[in-house]
Write a structure and sequence with these properties.
By secondary structure, the protein is α+β, with helices and mostly antiparallel strands. It has a single domain (6-30, 43-154), classed as Fructose-1,6-Bisphosphatase, Chain A, domain 1, CATH 3.30.540. 30% of the residues lie in helices and 26% in strands. The chain contains four helices and six strands, in the order H-H-H-E-E-H-E-E-E-E. It has a six-stranded mixed sheet. A hairpin with a 2-residue loop joins strand 3 (117-124) and strand 4. The termini are far apart.
């Protein structure tokens, strides 16, 4: 199987991540917190069902669509899928690493604020190749591909 390009990864994941964003927005008012992660910083210790569910969703997508990709999700220590990825770290040039922060701003999310997002990156040994940020409460997403600039669109939560 050929290594997918960063564009192919974003094109395949974006529609699904827009659905994940709608899910996050829909359940925010009744979200269940998970036990805190071990950290003295309250902004990195928060964990919710949405973090775990969105990460699992992306893991299933990646394993089904791009089974050879490297992946590092913020909640990898709690994931049942981590063991199925080829690697969790950067590899040689053009052996891309996909990273995910399923709910960036979890503490704000738990407190009912709008300033949280879903962040996915495609990294290469020499830097970033692609980045995607979805802002569910604002109904917007933004993505960039190396050398191509920034693009934006509306999410179904708007």
């Amino acid at each position: 199987m050929a290594t997918p390009t960063p564009r192919q990864i974003l094109q395949a994941l974006l529609p699904h991540l827009r659905v994940a964003a709608a899910y996050a927005q829909e359940i925010q008012s009744c979200i269940a917190a998970q036990p805190e992660k071990d950290s003295d910083n309250i902004f990195v210790s928060a964990l919710t069902d949405a973090d775990l569910s969105i990460q699992t969703f992306v893991e299933v997508l990646l394993l089904g669509l791009f089974p050879t990709v490297r992946f590092h999700g913020e909640e990898h220590e709690k994931s049942h899928n981590t063991k199925y990825f080829r690697a969790l770290d950067l590899g040689p040039q053009d052996d891309y690493l996909v990273t995910l922060d399923p709910i960036d701003g979890t503490r704000f999310y738990l407190d009912g604020h709008a300033n949280y997002q879903i962040i996915l990156n495609v990294l290469n040994a020499d830097g970033f190749e692609a980045a995607l940020v979805i802002r569910p409460a604002y109904g917007r997403y933004f993505y960039a591909l190396r050398g191509e600039g920034l693009f934006q669109g509306r999410s179904p939560t708007a």
